[in-house]
Request: fold
Amino acid sequence: MKQAYFSKDSGFTLIELGIVISVIAILVALAVPAYKNYTVRSKVAECIGVSAAAKLQISEYRLTMGPWPPDEASAGLVEDAGSRATKFCTELRYQTAADGSFAIDVDETQVGYPGVTIEPFMIPTASAQGVQWSCTPGNTSASAIKMLPPSCKS
Reply:
């Protein structure tokens, strides 16, 4: 006689189902915080990306005029132009005419990491080939440095 492929009492036991549900719960518990950190970092990276226009204006001023721009207006960081504030960034603030650097003020509440300071600095280095920019943590709180993109953590 031929045996049936499934017997009458085939299926999963309660213990097997419990183990599968436990494994899924552990994976979700690990994935949700990692995803939240990823979204915060991407929003901060957007603020750094928005600073590209300011970097270009400051670089052009330096290459054509000689010194770094003396003030925010000369650097192209004009408040009333509306280009400084985005959903995640409150402003780009010119630090000093001595080195041409500027700070990126991140709205920590909008990016989803309230109660800390996230304020990376963009620092230029002029050479005969042009101006190279580097990102530093600046005034970012020690607990929030992990929310900066990798290029700004050093």
